[in-house]
From TrEMBL:
Keyword Methyltransferase on entry: yes
Family from the record: Belongs to the precorrin methyltransferase family.
Protein name stated in the entry: uroporphyrinogen-III C-methyltransferase
GO biological process: methylation
Domain Tetrapyrrole methylase: 4-215
Domain Tetrapyrrole biosynthesis uroporphyrinogen III synthase, chain residue ranges per copy: 267-494
Length: 502
């Protein structure tokens, strides 16, 4: 079997990565990746994977191509599985063919994993179909930056200028004046539509449409930079009509997600689906306890409780894990009542075959107590499986109402980040517009890593809090929440962010 894989990472949108590519990323021993390959994919690598960045940014190569070839061969001879991750498709202006030839000469087996090329994906995300029966029946992919050592150009400008094909130029922003001039000299009308798409398919995608005659000047006025795809042809006239991606309400808006990594994926996906550039900065990790003997004892004595109140999804998960450890299941709850502090927690309980007897209208401890008192919980024996450290409002108020309350830690949260340098750098570059907090612990841990004074230097950055308890914690650090949803849930928080961004 091959131990080297030349893998196309696609144009950047994680949803455009192939299943085969993800499989290789997850199992490789050594990752060698380019500038245009989305670095977010690296989070799928094994913890022990050796990760090597080789650059290849226009005019600024961390390693020149011949050295990259040598590196791949050297690492391959170790017998380890190598993933050579390249933006787009390895064989479409990706120099994968050259790397393949080097591997053949070295007697090393390899496989190619094709990727979606930017020449198709970027125009599609900008509302431009590269073929359309009303405009053209062919498309031509062209390098906008030829090998400078070649004695003759491989570009046949006469053919390009006189054809009706859609022309897609890769890596051509620096040569845009020359490209436009050559096309017009060889027959393309000066008013031919031209589109430039930068960072196609990513949250920071931008595009504009001009004409061959004006595009170079307009790009200069806009200070247009690589990486960009240049599209020439009548299909560019469909940009405004068919554009869909750049209409997303949060496109280009940088949002910091401080939620624990184990829980952040849903929030991240929803925000990305609305176009946001998400900065994952989990300030806490959810960890099992070192000793579960107290939990096991409580489970075996569960019949003495009239109510069990779950205050989080994690509380449900860890409690049921211990049920399974001792050979029990949901039937142990027979004859008692179960409450959930919010809809996500309630759904987690339902997934285990139990319909909660109570879910409050407002998803904070104070409303839980009010609702439970209306259900005459006074005097009941109550078990609360929860985090090792959490707010004491719920147990305190229930005790005040005459309940016999047992707080049962089933997991703990720990500070997970080493420093806030990455967030501080993004703030300084102006890449962050919102910071979200979904609990008091995310607030406290965030400001352990990023000084409140640092965040105060950026008054235009808005703070989004999931609810009043989290907002109260923010106030202790000198901040008021700019955004707080009416419904204290993740969907409510996302809705409030979208409303603010529109």
């Amino acid at each position: 079997m091959a131990n080297v894989f030349l893998v196309g990472a696609g144009p950047g949108d994680p949803g455009m990565l192939t299943l085969r590519a993800k499989e290789i990323i997850e199992t490789c021993d050594i990752m060698i990746y380019d500038y245009l390959a989305n670095a977010d994919f690296l989070k799928w690598c094994k913890p022990e994977c050796e990760i090597l960045y080789v650059g290849k940014k226009g005019g600024d190569h961390t390693l020149p191509q011949d050295k990259i070839n040598d590196l791949i061969v050297e690492k391959a001879r170790s017998g380890k599985v190598i993933c050579r991750l390249k933006g787009g498709d390895p064989y479409v202006f990706g120099r994968g063919g050259e790397e393949g030839e080097e591997l053949v000469e070295a007697g090393i087996d390899f496989e190619v994993v094709p990727g979606i090329t930017a020449g198709v994906a970027a125009p599609a995300y900008a509302g431009i179909p590269v073929t359309h029966r009303d405009h053209t029946t062919s498309v031509c992919f062209i390098t906008g930056h030829e090998d400078p050592t070649k004695t003759e150009s491989g570009n046949n400008w006469e053919v390009y200028g006189q054809s009706n094909s859609t022309l897609v130029f890769y890596m051509g922003v620096g040569n845009l004046p020359m490209i436009a001039e050559n096309l017009m000299k060889n027959g393309r009308p000066a008013d031919t539509p031209v589109a430039l798409v930068r960072w196609g398919t990513r949250c920071n995608q931008t595009s504009f449409v001009s004409t061959l005659e004006n595009v170079a000047d307009e790009a200069r006025e806009r200070d247009w930079k690589a990486p960009s795809i240049i599209v020439v042809g009548g299909v560019c006239g469909l940009h405004d009509k068919l554009a869909w991606f750049e209409k997303k309400p949060m496109l280009g808006q940088g949002v910091v997600v401080t939620r624990a990594r184990e829980q952040a994926s849903g929030l991240v996906k929803v925000l990305q689906g609305h176009g946001a550039c998400v900065h994952e900065f989990p300030t806490i990790s959810v960890e099992p306890l070192n000793d579960y003997s107290a939990v096991e004892t409580a489970i075996l004595q569960l019949a003495r409780y009239q109510w069990v109140i779950f205050t989080s999804v994690n509380g449900v998960k860890f409690f049921w894990e211990q049920l399974a450890e001792i050979g029990l299941d949901s039937r142990i709850f027979c004859g008692m009542q179960v409450a959930a502090i919010g809809p996500a927690t309630a759904d987690e309980i339902r997934a285990r075959g139990i319909e909660p007897d109570f879910v409050p209208e407002k998803y904070v401890a104070e409303h839980v107590v009010k609702g439970l008192l209306e259900l005459e919980i006074q005097g009941a024996d109550v078990l609360i499986p929860r985090a090792k450290v959490a707010r004491e409002v719920l147990p305190r108020e229930l005790k005040a109402a005459g309940c016999n309350v047992t707080v049962l830690p089933v997991y703990e949260t720990k500070l997970v980040q080493a420093s806030g340098d990455e967030i501080e750098a993004s703030l300084e570059k102006g890449d962050i517009q919102y910071v979200t907090f979904t609990s008091s612990s995310t607030v406290e841990n965030f400001f352990d890593l990023v000084s409140p004074d640092t965040l105060k230097q950026y008054p235009d950055v808005k703070i989004a809090s999931i609810g009043p308890v989290t907002s109260e914690t923010l106030s202790k650090f000198g901040f008021a929440a700019d955004i707080e949803p009416e419904e204290y849930t993740i969907p409510g928080l996302v809705g409030a962010l979208i409303k603010e961004a529109e």
